[in-house]
Amino acid sequence: MIAPLILPLLAAATQPPVPEWNCADPQVQQEMNWCASQEYEAADAALNAQWTLTAAVMKKRDAEWAEIGSSDKRPGFFKSLIEGQRGWLRYRDAHCRVDGYAARMGSLEPLLVATCKTRLTRLRTAELKELVEVPG
C-alpha cells in the first residue's frame, strides 16, 4: 500500500548519472548496475516504511500484554522483532555478498549483489507485513 506511493517519488528524486540511461532497457553494465541499485533502494524504502508500521504494532502489543499483568518472562514483541531484524540484516548482507562472488571482482558483481538484496528485502517486507496481520 505504501510502496506504490514511495516508488514514484524515489524514481523522480534520483536521476541517472548519465542522462541517456534508461532502466526500462539498460544497455551497458554500469547502467545495469545503477538500475539494480535503484531498484534495491526502492525495496529498502518500502521495507523501512513497513518496519515503522510493524514496530508500532509490536510496541502496542507489548503495552497490551503489560496491561494484563502476564507472568511471561520471555522477551517482548518489539525486543524479539528487533533481534530478528538485526539477525536478518546480517544474513542478507552476508548471503548477498556470497551471491555476488559468482562474479567476484568483475563488473557484474554489483548487479548480482543488488539483485539479491532486492529479492531478500522484498521477502522480508512481506514477512513484516504478515506479523502485523497475525493477531497478537
Compact description:
73% of the residues lie in helices and 0% in strands. It has four helices and no strands.
> Termini distance?
22 Å
Helix share, percent: over 70%
* CATH hierarchy class name: Mainly Alpha
H-E string: HHHH
Structural class: mainly alpha
Radius of gyration: 19 Å
Q: How many H/I helical runs?
A: 4
Q: What count of domains describes the coordinates?
A: 1
The CATH architecture assignment turns out to be: Up-down Bundle
Average pLDDT reading: 90
Number of strands: 0
Low-confidence stretches: none
Overall 3D form: elongated
CATH structural fold name: Substrate Binding Domain Of Dnak, Chain:A, Domain 2
The largest β sheet comes out as:
none
**Into which percentage range does the β-strand content fall?**
under 5%
Give me the secondary-structure topology.
Blueprint: H1 3-13, H2 29-67, H3 77-100, H4 109-133
How would you explain this protein's 3D organization?
The chain is mainly α. It has one domain: Up-down Bundle (Substrate Binding Domain Of Dnak, Chain:A, Domain 2), CATH 1.20.1270. The protein has four helices and no strands. Helix 1 packs antiparallel against helix 2. The two termini are 22 Å apart. The mean pLDDT is 90.
